[in-house]
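ok trying again, last paste got cut off:
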Amino acid sequence: MTELNKRSKNLRLEIIKLSKANGGYHYGGSFSCVEILISLFDKCLNFEKDKFVMSKGHACWGYYVLLHERGYRPLLEGHPHRDVHNGVEWTTGSEGHGMPAALGMALARKLKKQEGEIFVLIGDGECQEGTTWESFLLAKQHKLNNLTVIVDYNKIQGSGFVEDILSVKSLGNVARAVGWKVSEIDGHDLDILSKTLKEKKNEPHLIIADTVKGKGVSFMENQPKWHANWPSTEYEKKAIEELSK
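nice, full thing came through this time. structure:
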């Protein structure tokens, strides 16, 4: 798995700083999707034409930091609340809500013949929701080649390991079977992420980004308890030390 560069480490440090000051936690999922968000915000999104939906809303702290970098000031809560003037396109956090909303945005643009891409980041736990499977069918039915869905496939959800609760290993095969373009990549490799996000497509695009829960902090990596856990002063200090190297 790819080593973290300075940009990735700094964003994780800013996540700790911003979340601790505002009552946030959910470090496992926030850290697993850092490179996905960096690739979107630094390399891919056209902020004049594109829209991004952070469907895995509990992992919002990196999202907030990147919005702050661009001058936005969203409400800093544990899940994003819709505020289009501050870069938040949809209220999310309840699983399975963001992808259908993004699908609707993509369909609206298709019908209006408007330019711009719709990107949505979902969690692998969300992939167990019925709305996700319905969205796969609808997106292909309406030929939504302006829709890209990225799955943060860190293999851990709030109640434990995804595989032990309800496996989603068939996700890519199902998406292919109904007519989606599917890419399975290293979700911590910024170059591969950026290249894949920019690929031209004739159908809706599913990117399954293989990630590590809690990536970048040794005691958090692949540990279900860090899905939602408030770090003590000692743990916070250790995390900052590791990310500052």
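cool. The chain has one domain: 6-243. The chain has a mean pLDDT of 95.
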